[in-house]
Amino acid sequence: MDTVSLWLDNPAAAYREWQAHDAAGADRRPFAARSVVQHTAMFDRFLRYLVARGTTVAAFDAAHLESFFADVDNRCAPGTTTHVRYAKLVDRLCRYLVELGVRRGNPAADFVRKEQWPEDEPQPLFLDPAADERLQSHIQPQGADNDREARNRAIVALLLGTGITAGEIRVARAGHLVIDAVRPHIFVPKRGARAERKVTLQGFAIAALERWLLVSQCDEAEQLLFPAPKAGKPINDMLLGIIVREALEAVDFCAPDMSPRILRNTYARRQLLSGRNNEDVSRLLGLVSQRTVVRLRATIQPVAIESSDTSLST
Hints:
Blueprint: H1 3-9, H2 11-21, H3 33-52, H4 62-75, H5 82-100, H6 109-114, H7 129-138, H8 147-162, H9 166-170, E1 177-178, E2 185-188, E3 197-200, H10 203-216, H11 237-250, H12 261-273, H13 278-285, H14 291-297
Antiparallel strand pairs: 1-2, 2-3
């Protein structure tokens, strides 16, 4: 099958072929392997969006892009560069498809001209060590906890003790959580650009999770670890956000963003403070780039080294 036909019949395969052999950045250098993985996951998301709206890579227009970017903005925290990254990816894709003759025009060009990388990225939000300790104490199970309280403590414990994302905890299964083992951990399946991984549970999170497994009677491996109330479906983002916010408020912590992201940042920063390097922490988070971890490391003040007193008494 020739290249044009492949783009029309199997755009996902065509994109992978392009990334592997021909795609390059602005400096005309091939993309790094990690970037290829990330770009492919982004394209797959864009392609699913097009298919759901009954169009193709050869036919989508500016209206489709405007709708897609609005959806991206709704799903991302303020201040992130996801919108810019998608605009650049789709622009690069369209220019290539025009060269091939698959498309007649590039509707992404106007979007890219309006976009620019933020000069100063927003400061990542996290719990300082004192607030982190207060929250670790707050999530410990209490004898009078009802099922809802046990669930909420377990959710915060898992987010704070592993750094997994809100999307990952929503689809976590009972069989993914392993507590009665030499190394208690959560298995996180491959999702988008993130490879599958196992993340060791930090000790403070174990008691709350054990209590939840007991009261929820999660006996089947494929059962959702945290199903939505009375629905049997994954817990939704709104309820997840409320649970995290209530826990943060309970320990007198207030920030512009009180979402699960702050627990993920806190986990990552805690790993950096313990001596792990950027690559290790990025791997624990399932990230293909070290960008997030580098920003978090920049918030850690270097320990001041006092110069020794070398003066001689006279």
